[in-house]
Amino acid sequence: MTAKKQHRTTAAPVPLNRAEELLIAAFELFAERNFASVTIKDIGAATGANTALIYYYFGSKEALFRATIENAVDRAFQHFRLLRTQRTTPPEVIAGWLENHVELQDLIRKMVKIGLDYAGTGRRTAPIDRTVRRFYDDEASAVGDAIRAGIRQGLFRKVDVKKLVTFISTHLDGVMVRSMLFDDFDVRAAVAELQAMVWERLGWKPDGDRSSSAVRRT
Amino acid sequence: MTAKKQHRTTAAPVPLNRAEELLIAAFELFAERNFASVTIKDIGAATGANTALIYYYFGSKEALFRATIENAVDRAFQHFRLLRTQRTTPPEVIAGWLENHVELQDLIRKMVKIGLDYAGTGRRTAPIDRTVRRFYDDEASAVGDAIRAGIRQGLFRKVDVKKLVTFISTHLDGVMVRSMLFDDFDVRAAVAELQAMVWERLGWKPDGDRSSSAVRRT
Amino acid sequence: MTAKKQHRTTAAPVPLNRAEELLIAAFELFAERNFASVTIKDIGAATGANTALIYYYFGSKEALFRATIENAVDRAFQHFRLLRTQRTTPPEVIAGWLENHVELQDLIRKMVKIGLDYAGTGRRTAPIDRTVRRFYDDEASAVGDAIRAGIRQGLFRKVDVKKLVTFISTHLDGVMVRSMLFDDFDVRAAVAELQAMVWERLGWKPDGDRSSSAVRRT
Amino acid sequence: MTAKKQHRTTAAPVPLNRAEELLIAAFELFAERNFASVTIKDIGAATGANTALIYYYFGSKEALFRATIENAVDRAFQHFRLLRTQRTTPPEVIAGWLENHVELQDLIRKMVKIGLDYAGTGRRTAPIDRTVRRFYDDEASAVGDAIRAGIRQGLFRKVDVKKLVTFISTHLDGVMVRSMLFDDFDVRAAVAELQAMVWERLGWKPDGDRSSSAVRRT
DNA sequence: TATGAATGAGGGTTCATTCAT
DNA sequence: AATGAATGAACCCTCATTCAT
Fold it and tell me: Which of A171, B173, C161, D10 has its Cα between 20 and 30 A from that of C112?
């Protein structure tokens, strides 16, 4: 959105243009370290681009940071959508959502980290705030819909949908944080535990080894 | 512990010595921004101390950072302990723990933020790793003991204690993160929700408005 | 050699490129004071260059120092070679060498001073060690060859060439040091004295006022 | 002279007073590195003295430096005198002088280095200039006297005494410099070579292995 | 005589940013 | 679209020096 050209809607490993290449490298670096610690030169070095070129594309480090967030959210959406389309029944959607957090944990962890970095400093901007929120809300509403559908279909017990969704996604954030703090934290197990709790809350008994229960206990 | 000298003879809110004063200011700043963004000069300005003095006490910015973490953990412990002694029955201990996260949310949020900052960069050190871990473990074990006692006393249903404790504290981290990301996140409500879930899990029915249920719904 | 780029297309006193300009200014300053006393800012001020530019070209003060030594040795070589080509007979070569130390005393004194500064601190590096040695060895071998030729031609008495060369060049170092220590030390006279001693040792009788005896007594 | 108390004329390993202890440590450090590179704290650390104490004794770093030079010259004199008294005949005095430069090479090298450091910067002071000169002159006059005596006694050929003395001491400086520049420089051999040259100049034939020829060839 | 605390003035180095080409 | 050169503003850190005790 910020970079001069881009929007590649097609599949995947098309030759990235320079701007997108920079955004991806920036994303990795900002996530690994943080805004203040990453140098424009670092990003240049990671992509073989001249420092001035980054300015040519993005105008300033802050603008690059913003563009990085937007681009990352876009890419995350694609990933999620891809995985979502295959699920249909409410339990499958919910299980799928949780599974995503295991499969894409690396991506999500990075996004949470950048999100925290973004939120933590005086760098905030309404458009970016909206982008971040959009990411969280979109996910939440998908799951909310699934729960509501499940209730309607008599699969789930009646619950306060909004509260439950918030509970789940808050917990998932906790899982991500934990895995940042401690190298030996078992994300898969934690998500499995969460899933068990959710099924209990919804009064849903998954049948043992069906694929809907994508997150297997370890 | 970390600063060169200490000499505190009297009880508590005595005029802090210079080193501790610096540590506290540093904690606030590091939590608000992050290691890379906070200037030694900032810390000096916040305490009216000359920049060189900080080096006199701590030797380097990194050492100051480490000392800050240790000092913060120490102080957090004191807070927690203070609040803990008043609770006696298992449900009270658990409710108290949760309540602490509401009452001391500011402190805890800061600690999580600094913890993430610490974990995120190449600045890690075994002693500090241990300090951070100690903080988490100590809390966990206190709650674990309470749950086990509750089970023994027949108050709670039999559960996998370790898993439950991890679940709770992971969720609490999630709550903290959420409140960092979104200004309007209601920590009290989220913790209340968690408490409800915990009681359900433990098969414990608190009697409506008794003080044991310290975290009131909003 | 050391600076990033060079592009010199034309012959000699073309406008120096920035890097070389810096190296020359650095040489003067390092020789006048010493590594520790010379500020990057000093060098910048002497060339009208921004401090950061020096880092752009050389990366660090130490690297600049090393580059300065290499560059100075290079330049000294050029000077020496220029003066050497004009001499042909063995006595002329020897006399020329000595004369060089009078004519180029300023340059040589500076090189010795920087050499001592370099040798004195923990800043030593194999490549630079080699460069310095190369400077001394090259000179020595040129004179050694001349003496050997003179002996072969029956001009000189048979002597231990290596020892004599070491003796002469050690003495020349002494002359340089003396002229550093005492402003009123007469370099020309000292070198003339050395020459007399050398001729005596070699059993060579120069005819009074011929140009071969370039170092006239004062 | 500068330090508040001192002058110990007695033999050697008497318990040094604090000021002298500082001066000796300072001498070593200034010689090893140089004025600018040595920290007051370094000197303090080397003696276990508080930084402020050094100021108490010497007032400033420069004053300490000056005091160090004076003290070092004093101590060098003592050394030289001690060794000189044992020699009596002119050849013995000369040989002894040369030998001193081998035996005390470490001390002398340090003095030359500090001398150069002193001469090199704008730190010069008339009194110190005099002290340094005194050191050189005193030595020179002792040797000059010996040569003159030798000539008078018919042991030596008639020579220009002043010139010869300058030649010798200049060469000795050269030897010291060389040994600073190159770790593998053989001081003893170089001095032996110089001695041979001197004997030749003076027309003196030492008898093989007598103790007068203190500097043995290697 | 001795010391811990404190400070002002840099010094080396980095970095976001710009500009001419 | 791309780059090398250049710069101002900081930033971390050091150090000579002072002062109260």
Answer: C161
How many Å from the CA of A117 to C1' of F12? Answer: 23
Torsion of CA C2, C3, C8, C14, to 10 degrees: -110
**D114: burial class by Cβ within 10 Å (0-12, 13-18, 19+)?**
buried
Q: Any long-range contacts for C85-90 (C-beta under 8 Å, 24+ apart)? A: C89/C155, C89/C212, C90/C146, C90/C147, C90/C149, C90/C150, C90/C153, C90/C155, C90/C156
Q: Which H helix or E strand runs over C130?
A: helix C126-152
Give the other-Cβ count within 10 Å of D63's Cβ. Answer: 16
Q: Which residue is nearest to nucleotide F3 (CA to C1')?
A: A50
- The pLDDT > 90 percentage for chain D reads 68
Q: How many CB pairs under 8 A join C and D?
A: 99
| Structure-model confidence comparison of residues A212 and B65, the more confident one | B65
CB atoms within 10 A of CB A81: 11
The nucleotides of chain F lying under 7 Å from a protein CB are 1-20
Sequence letter at residue B5: K
Which site among A167, A183, A194 would you substitute to test the B interface, given the most B Cβ atoms closer than 10 Å to its Cβ? A167
- Taking 80 as the threshold, does the pLDDT of residue B66 lie above it? yes
Checking if the pLDDT of C218 tops 60, the result is: no
- For D:21-80, CB contacts with C below 8 A are 32-34, 36-37
Query: Would you say residue B106 has pLDDT above 70?
Result: yes
Amino acid whose CA is nearest the C1' of F1: A53
How would residue C208 be classed by pLDDT, with cut points 50, 70 and 90? low
The structure's pTM equals: 0.88
